[in-house]
Design goal:
Rossmann fold, globular, 14% strand, 14 strands, alpha/beta
């Protein structure tokens, strides 16, 4: 490795994803933030390699059949998507890795890592896998309402190569300790792979003070079952029963939009809850709310909570999964149970009705963001780990 004036000249770092370059998932936010940070320390561009990096015109032939298949046979749609996206990614990587000797491939998932392992030309081309997934991507495809059956043939067909890939990579980056523990519970042998827990992070936003609040509370996330927006509506309905008409803005789009619209009407929450759709500037809007509410029960980390803390918002969330790693009950947050919307409404109302507690939590959230989740701090740890793997001889 050669350094000049703090800039990295070797090895090359490639960021690899199965997704399109543009998108609004937590994984997209992760690799965009990481890429921007790494660019500050490199004399070379930090390439982002996707399946669309190789023979893009051919993707219009290979990829669309999945849209038809997912209606006829969802499991077949999953297999089609995974096969063709990995193949195109492999082709793109094979070409790009042939241009360098020493490099680190920062893969954003098991498919990406497997494509990189197959495509690399020499052991000096290291592969580091980011663990954004919960134990196995098979479990994510098997969530209620999703495409495959847990434990079924397609489920096993996804898990088998994942196991091999995870044990072959040169390093693992867990985005939370919970993600690490979840993976090791399924695959204990992964403890032998060099690893680090390095959480998600974002750039510190410019805080804008709004003279008036847009609503009492806000949440951001795709409108799907795992984000559990239905619970938030039940909480507001329970609060209304006690005489409190709280207002909620929900940012994000997804398959449950129509169902949530119907639930808003059936619970008598029309005018209190607004489905705002996707907005690219949502981070700038967050300070216009009193608190951030979170009801998701299935994620390895939460960039939404991190971004809310960056905006100086107190948090109300369930103390499950990775959430306790991000905020503490009684400090930056108040924890509620996702099993009891009536009790959750009490927790929320008690919090919102104490301006002093809200203010203390808001200050604590903002301070903790800068201590632990600002990209300048987290990015330095990730860069160090990636370069350490590049120079370590197994």
């Amino acid at each position: 490795m050669v350094a000049r004036q703090g800039k990295l000249t070797a090895p090359h770092i490639f960021i690899v994803t199965i997704f399109r370059e543009s998108g609004h998932t937590g994984v997209h936010t992760h690799f965009r933030q990481v890429r921007d940070y790494l660019r500050r320390y490199s004399t070379e561009e930090i390439p982002l390699i996707t399946p669309f990096s190789w023979n893009r015109p051919l993707t219009y032939i290979a990829f669309p059949p999945r849209l038809m298949l997912k209606h006829i046979s969802p499991p077949a749609g999953v297999l089609w998507y995974r096969h063709w996206h990995e193949l195109f990614l492999y082709r793109a990587l094979r070409r790009e890795l042939g241009k360098v000797d020493e490099c680190v491939v920062y893969a954003q998932g098991p498919l990406e890592a497997r494509a990189a392992l197959r495509a690399r030309h020499a052991p000096q081309q290291r592969v580091v896998l980011a663990v954004h997934f919960r134990s196995s991507q098979a479990d994510e495809h098997a969530e209620p309402g999703r495409e495959i059956k847990s434990g079924g043939a397609v489920y096993r067909a996804i898990q088998r190569p994942e196991r091999q890939t995870i044990l072959q990579v040169d390093g693992l980056v867990y985005v939370s300790a919970w993600a690490r523990d979840s993976l090791l519970a399924w695959l204990p042998e992964a403890a032998n792979v060099p690893s680090a827990v390095i959480g998600n992070a974002v750039e510190a936003p410019s805080i804008v003070k709004y003279p008036e609040k847009l609503a009492d509370i806000v949440t951001v996330g795709r409108l799907d079952a795992a984000k559990n927006h239905r619970f938030l509506l039940e909480v507001l309905a329970a609060a209304k029963e006690t005489g409190w008409n709280l207002t909620l803005d929900i940012y994000g789009d997804g398959p449950l939009r129509n169902e949530l619209t119907r639930q808003i009407c059936s619970l008598g929450l029309t005018g209190q809850v607004r489905l705002q759709g996707f907005r690219s500037d949502v981070r700038q809007i967050l300070p216009a709310y009193r608190a951030y509410v979170h009801a998701s029960y299935a994620e390895t980390s939460s960039l939404a909570i991190i971004e809310a803390m960056a905006a100086g918002l107190p948090i109300v969330a369930a103390g499950i999964g990775p959430v306790p790693e991000l905020c503490d009950d009684g400090v930056e947050a108040r924890f509620w149970s996702l099993d009891d919307p009536v009790r959750a409404a009490t927790v929320l109302l008690d919090f919102l009705n104490s301006e002093s507690e809200l203010e203390k939590a808001a200050v604590a959230a903002h301070q903790r963001f800068h201590r632990e989740f600002e990209i300048g701090r987290v990015g330095a740890r990730l860069r160090s780990f990636l370069l350490e793997r590049a120079t370590t001889i197994s």
